[in-house]
Amino acid sequence: MPLLDIAGLHVDFPSHQGVLHAVDDLSLQLEEGEVLGIVGESGSGKSISMMALMGLIPFPGRVRAQHVRFAGHDVLTASEVTRRSIVGSDIAMIFQDPMTSLNPCFTVEFQMTETLRLHKGMTQKQARMRACELLEQVGIADPARRLSAYPHQLSGGMSQRVMIAMAIACQPRLLIADEPTTALDVTVQAQILDLLATLQKEQGMAMVLISHNMGVVSEVAQRVAVMYAGQVVELQDADRLFDAPQHPYTQALLQAMPERSNGQARLHTIAGMVPGMLDRPSGCLFAPRCDRAQAICTKPAPLRRAPQAQVRCHLAVDTSHGHAA
Q1: Fewer CB in 10 Å around end: N or C, the chain?
Q2: CB 226 within 8 A of CB 301
Q3: How far apart are the C-alpha atoms of 220 and 238, rounded to whole Å?
Q4: pLDDT digit string (tens) for 46-98?
Q5: 289 backbone φψ class: left, alpha, beta (φ>0; ψ -120 to 50)
Q6: CA-angle at 213, arms to 292 and 102, nearest 5°
Q7: Which residues pair with 236 in a beta bridge?
Q8: What is the pLDDT of residue 303?
Q9: CB 176 within 8 A of CB 16
Q10: Which helix (H) or strand (E) holds 70?
Q11: Could you tell me which of 131, 199, 158, 167 has the C-alpha nearest to residue 54?
Q12: Which helix (H) or strand (E) is 12 found in, with range?
């Protein structure tokens, strides 16, 4: 049984203009100790899909699925007590912006010990000692002094380390890292990625790494899901995806990486933007931006499944052989 099993997940946001399909029929599985990268442009549904797992979709958002199972429990149909025992303890999430994810009104100690007292039943003294250990584990010097600090007194990198310490406090089986290096400088980005990779290996936890940076994902993930307009368009082992992408969107994302520019004066770009509620195509969602689109692409793209792989395209190309799949 996989640790995480999502089948047919939909997240919709109705409005007076229509319905925005933020996540459209997402299915994926994650094994114990596995690292899955989810990549795509802003608006692709990466964060929303994991927020649905965490039960954090705000009104008027609607979540439905065949099932969303974690360790055999369907978290969508579970009781509130069961869900709360899982989310925040067995599943933890590091949010995008470290500077706004911490509550500015409370000290680091209050925010860290609250988690430990709620989920682990620790006394305040026990929780404080554990909080010090966690801050030291994530590389924060003089942790006892940092516990009394407020978020505005911390740098971006230090705030992110505090967020990571809070996330691993209950030794989760699954850690979701949502753009963990956003708004950090390059040196700190590398430090945070190294820290996450080290903690994942030491604790044997599974991890979902959400990013728009293909380079970041290539360094950490074992498998990669590429999302576009709420759909998974390609899911492959990381090595195969980066060496032989099959979906035109994946190919375009890789071509846009600076390290693949081969000294060209201009980087490759993808014309247009991710469709919204009012300009969503009736056929393949990527077709209006795809330089390989044909007449058949006016029809919804089929999802081709293979063991540990998915490709959603009429004209998927196996670039290792150079022909249509």
Answers
A1: N
A2: no
A3: 9
A4: 999 999 999 999 889 999 999 999 998 999 988 888 888 888 789 999 988 77
A5: alpha
A6: 140
A7: 224
A8: 87
A9: no
A10: strand 67-70
A11: 167
A12: strand 4-15
- Give the residue carrying structure tokens 């293979």: 306
Cα 232–Cα 260–Cα 47 angle in degrees, nearest 5? 30
C-alpha pair distances (Å), 207 with each of 129, 217, 243, 279? 26, 12, 23, 34
Residues of the chain with pLDDT under 70: 263, 307-308, 317-325
β-partners of residue 94 are 177
**Rounded distance between C-alpha atoms, residue 119 and residue 106, angstroms:** 19
* DSSP element (H, E) containing 178: strand 174-178
Phi, psi dihedrals of residue 303, rounded to the nearest 5° = -100, 110
**Alpha carbons 40 and 227: distance in angstroms, whole number:** 5
Q: Taking CA 140 as the corner, what is the angle to CA 137 and CA 146, rounded to the nearest 5 degrees?
A: 120
How many C-beta atoms surround the C-beta of residue 253 within 10 A? Answer: 21
Task: Report the candidate in 181, 161, 162, 164 with the shortest Cα–Cα distance to residue 107.
Answer: 162
How far apart are alpha carbons 40 and 219 in whole angstroms?
16
Q: pTM for the full model?
A: 0.90
Helix and strand numbers, DSSP H then E, in the chain: 11, 15
What's the CA gap between 227 and 188, in Å, rounded? 27
Q: Which residues contact 260 (CB under 8 A, 6 or more apart)?
A: 254
Q: Would you say how long the chain is, in residues?
A: 325
What pLDDT score was predicted for residue 302? 87
Question: 86-126: per-residue pLDDT in tens?
Answer: 887 899 999 887 778 889 999 999 999 998 998 888 899 99
Tell me the C-alpha distance between 30 and 133, whole Å.
29
The reported pLDDT for the residue numbered 91 is: 94
Strand order in the sheet with 35-39: 91-94, 174-178, 206-211, 35-39, 223-228, 231-237, 309-312, 303-306
Q: What is the pLDDT of residue 172?
A: 93
Type of residue at 169:
A
